[in-house]
Amino acid sequence: MAKINLLPWRLERRKQRQKEFYTMLATSAFAALFIAFGVVQYFGSLIENQDGRNAFLQEEIRLLDIKIKEIEELDKKKAALLTRKQVIEQLQASRSQMVHLLDELVRTIPEGVRLGSIKQNGDVLTLEGVTQSNARVSSYMRELESSGWMTSPDLAIIEAKGTEKAMPYAFTLKVNLIRPKAEGEADPEAGLDADPAAGQVGGAP
């Protein structure tokens, strides 16, 4: 009976299987590397896109900050201009008020009273002078009250220390300054309680 040696065939078969195994292992490793590379590239592109968006937002924020600073500077300039406007308006009003005030001081001062100094502190005017008697000062205070430019006269000091015999009394008088309404100027509080139907001419048909 003939004998057949199968050992070489088994060795070849084993080598073939090992080769196939290593080939599949290499293919799997390559496929895994390829997939990993693809995943890394995908997330890298996402990160790059996000970085681009972040850079765009940061640039827009920087431009907005510049605009905000410009607006703040404009607001400061506007506030400064408004302040200057108010100062100018106050100076113009004060100049007009002082002209009328001096006229009123000359008009209201009675005989037997002479002013020596006039001082202004805000809306308070301090008048210092000499007079013949207390009655002259009282008359002067009534004239000031009715002038329309001054109110609430207050006699601070009156004492007999004048240097002139004709006017032996020295006095100090304080009065509050007011701005009278011009002719035709409406009172802001007037008409609030008035009947809106008042002033209508004619009745209902």
Detailed description of the structure:
This protein has 205 residues and is an alpha+beta fold. It has a domain at 109-177: General secretion pathway protein M, EpsM (Gyrase A, domain 2). The chain has helices at residues 7-108, 134-145; strands at 113-121, 124-131, 150-159, 169-177. The protein has a 4-stranded antiparallel beta sheet, covered by helices on one side. A hairpin with a 2-residue loop joins β1 (113-121) and β2 (124-131).
Lay out the secondary structure.
Blueprint lengths: L6 H102 L4 E9 L2 E8 L2 H12 L4 E10 L9 E9 L28
The low-confidence parts are: 183-205
SSE run: HEEHEE
The shape is rod-shaped
Quaternary: single chain
Calculate the terminal CA-CA distance, rounded to whole Å. 147 Å
Biggest sheet details: 4 strands, antiparallel
Total helical elements: 2
Strand order of the largest sheet: 1-2-4-3
Query: What's the name of the CATH homologous superfamily of the domain at 109-177?
Result: General secretion pathway protein M, EpsM
Determine the strand fraction and express it as a percent band. 15-25%
CATH topology annotation of the domain at 109-177:
Gyrase A, domain 2
CATH class of the domain at 109-177: Alpha Beta
Average pLDDT number:
79
Q: At CATH's second level, what is the architecture of the domain at 109-177?
A: 2-Layer Sandwich
Q: How does the helix and strand content classify structurally?
A: alpha+beta
Number of strands: 4
